[in-house]
Amino acid sequence: MLLFPGSFNPMHVGHLAIANFIAEQYSDRFDEVWLLLTPNSPFKEKIEKLPTEFRAKWIGHLIKGYPQLKLSLEESNLTPPYYTVHTVQYLKGKYPKFEFTLLIGADSLMDLPEWYGAEQLLKEIKIIAYPRPAYDKSLIKPEILEQVELLDDVPTFEISSSQLRKLLREGKALPYLLGTKIDEPLYRQLHQLLISSK
User: Fold this and answer.
1) 50-94: per-residue pLDDT in tens?
2) What is the DSSP letter of 137?
3) Is the distance from CB of 18 to CB of 5 less than 8 angstroms?
4) CA of 74: how far to CAs of 130, 151, 155, in Å?
5) Distances in Å between the alpha carbon of 92 and those of 24, 58, 142?
6) Beta-strand pair 126-130/148-150
7) pTM greater than the 0.90 cutoff
8) SS3 149
9) How far apart are CA 153 and CA 25, in angstroms?
10) Where are the alpha helices (DSSP H) in 26-184?
């Protein structure tokens, strides 16, 4: 099982493309990709979040009918702060027959040594990383590169949830960047949630 953690605030075509590509291209390695929704990332505590319940519904809407992608709300069972190492240990204990791999953006490798419990995390789980715009391999410590796998063939989009939230608040119609239709009720709800939280 591949764990793809994120706040998905909201999920967009960039997230979907990564998850879809890996689920298909690496189907011999991963039975499923779990979209591990974190209620509140320790790295993004000050960023305004859409309600967790809505983010979960939104992900469910986007991946409906594609069985290789699964929404996971397991972190909601844990006590904050939601550190990745604690989540991994919890999942390994709950699903002892599963072999988990962790997927992160390659830019996160630059500050991985500063993550809470980083040394233990590297012992607990295999980590693979996909390309990111801010990724600079020369800034990643050699000992980290030796312990992770880089997937350079994964397609990525230079788009962010924060950028989309800003544009939606301005009244822009962006259903296709969010992987949905303009008449989708949840899309209208997303618009309303963001405008009301200005």
Assistant:
1) 999 999 999 999 999 999 999 999 999 999 999 999 999 999 999
2) G
3) no
4) 23, 26, 27
5) 24, 27, 27
6) parallel
7) yes
8) strand
9) 9
10) 52-63, 84-94, 118-124, 142-145, 161-169
* SS3 letters across 96-124: CCCCCEEEEEHHHHHCHHHCCCHHHHHHH
Alpha carbon distance 141, 134 (integer Å): 16
Q: For residues 50 and 10, is the Cβ–Cβ distance under 8 A?
A: yes
Mean pLDDT of the 15-25 span: 97
Mean pLDDT of 22-43: 92
159 vs 32: CA distance, rounded Å: 25
Distances (CA, A) of 13 to 39, 76, 120: 20, 24, 32
> Token digits for 173?
């119609």
Q: How many CB atoms lie within 10 A of CB 72?
A: 21
Exposure pattern of 167-181 as b/e (b: 16+ CB <10 Å)? ebeeeeebeebbbbe
Question: Which token pair is 163?
Answer: 């950028």
State the Cα–Cα distance between residues 13 and 177, nearest whole angstrom: 6
